[in-house]
Amino acid sequence: MKKKTPLILAALLLSAVVLQAQQTDDAPFAALDQRVKSAPMVWAGSKENLSKMFDDERRRLRDRFEPELMKWIGTDPEKHYWISAFVECEDYLHGNKRLPQLSLLIKQQGLALVYGKRDIQSRGYVLGLSMTAAVLSHELGLGPLAVFYKKQAEELRTKDPEMGGYVPALSKEEWDRYDIIGRMVVIAAGPPVPADDSMPRAAISGGILNGRALKLPKPSYPSAAREARVSGTVEVRVVIDETGKVIAAKAISGHPDLRGASEDAAMKSEFSPTKLAGQPVKVSGLILYNFVAR
């Protein structure tokens, strides 16, 4: 029995190595990560093979795909840029279902990573992500958000001549959609929303307010909506008083099952007081909430 001990130990060690290799191979996006790391310029070339590997992994992960994806892209703006295209651009789907809401969420997170940075690569990401986010927001019926992103992109294009090489390759249909943004604001699920007399009047319109909040609680995900895998973006119109407190909130777009939770979260948000000519004033604007079914 003693003579067999080394053989047994060797067999156990070999099994552990094989198991570890299998676990590495099964790690979410491991093969794609290895491909990217082995060729640092791979994102600059053809996306055919990369998108195929990505879509194969999407099929393998199934219900785990979205949470594992968000962990994998982490804080890498390049991944945010290309993966946001992989989940919605027909050329990259390889038979998978298009996910425009998830794409917009990834673009928004990518913008948060690079906004305000002055290096040319980061500014290029801001331009590309803003232009594509504008097109996608318009498609989804998020008119004010589309206008916001187009304005951000056009200001960068106008002020920075170096940005010409970072304009994304949009299709004719996408360019047509981009061109009409700002001419007409359309709210999802219906015609433009008329003025609401129940909302307090405000001296200033602040646009998209998410980035200006001191406190921005996440809305609870209604259990019925979660079970039904309801997802998407909800726009909440808010009025902020002179102290920075939200005094009124009303959802103007988004799935009906998500609107109540979004309004409740908006009412708990807090902002710095806004002053006009030295005097505190009320401000109106939009808070956007993204719900992603897990």
Description:
- The chain is an alpha+beta fold and 294 residues long.
- It has a 4-stranded mixed β-sheet with strand order 1-8-3-4, with helices on both faces. It has a two-stranded antiparallel sheet with strand order 2-5. It has a two-stranded antiparallel sheet with strand order 6-7.
- Helices cover 50% and strands 14% of the residues.
- The protein folds into 2 domains: 48-180; 204-291, TolA/TonB C-terminal domain (2-Layer Sandwich).
- Helix 7 runs antiparallel to helix 8 (120-139) and helix 8 crosses helix 10 (172-180).
- A hairpin with a 5-residue loop joins strand 3 and strand 4.
- The longest helix is centred in the N-terminal third of the chain and has 22 residues, at 5-26.
Helix content: 40-55%
Into which percentage range does the β-strand content fall? 5-15%
Radius of gyration: 23 Å
What average pLDDT do the residues reach? 83
Largest sheet: 4 strands, mixed
What is the chain-wise order of helices and strands?
A: HHHHHHHHHHEEHEEHEEEE
Taking pLDDT < 50 over at least 5 consecutive residues as the criterion, the unreliable ranges are 16-24, 184-195
Distance between the termini: 53 Å
Overall, the morphology is: globular
Order of strands across the main sheet: 1-8-3-4
Distinct helical segment count: 12
Number of domains: 2
**What structural class do helix, strand and pairing data support?**
alpha+beta
Number of strands: 8
